[in-house]
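The methods section describes the discrete structure representation at length, but only in general terms. What matters is that the chain and its backbone geometry are given together, residue for residue. For illustration, here is how one protein appears when written out as sequence plus structure tokens:
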Amino acid sequence: MATTPLLALRGICKRFGALHALTRVELEINAGEVVALVGDNGAGKTTLVKVITGAGPADEGVIEWNGRPVRIGRPRDAQSLGIASVYQELALCESLDVVGNLFLGHEICRAGVLDEVAMERRARELDLLDVLSVRIPRTRVPVASLSAGQRQAVAIARTLLSEPKVLILDEPTAALGVGQTAHFLDLIERLRERGLGVLLISHNLGDVKAVADHVAVLRLGRNNGFFDVLTTSQEQIVSSITGATDNAVTHRKTQPWEATL
């Protein structure tokens, strides 16, 4: 029996003047699933992420959350649904410690003053870094002293404070070494075990094959293939990315997309 996707995009279109950045794009993400979004530069990956996060609303199409049509017109709409993102630029404040970064923008205050004790207690109660199996000496060390992999973990732990259902990871291993990449891929596995739906944007097909359940290929702003990682070779995915093969398909082939957001 088919399950209802946690997040589904149906016939998404996005235009910038005469440029059609996205044309009838579809994507589905289930709870406890890692979906890799791949494509060459200019394929439309960034534009699609902006549609999902509300930073650049779609012009046409339908977004469904647990099978129910929703409108994502601004970042706050995405956040209220349970969609969070960690970009390649981690937006961490290096002069602050781990706790300060975890609560950056969501500080706990008492009588107008930062309650450092309450924030540290809250961080320990949630055990986010422990859940992600990240070894950080102390939560009061400056983020500037952490490794790139540890910083990634802090950025992800910060998003988990809001208890998201879908987490978008944009090129998370681009700045990591081999050992740190392996550790980060283990972290993605733990996110899946927690029941999150993960959208992984990556150019590294080795990483994709290691952790993704499914791969969605974009080419020139259109779907050009949906693949099951276990039954698809890396060569097939590359062919779809480059356009050597045309695998353009949709999740629902018979549905007309006439709804406008």
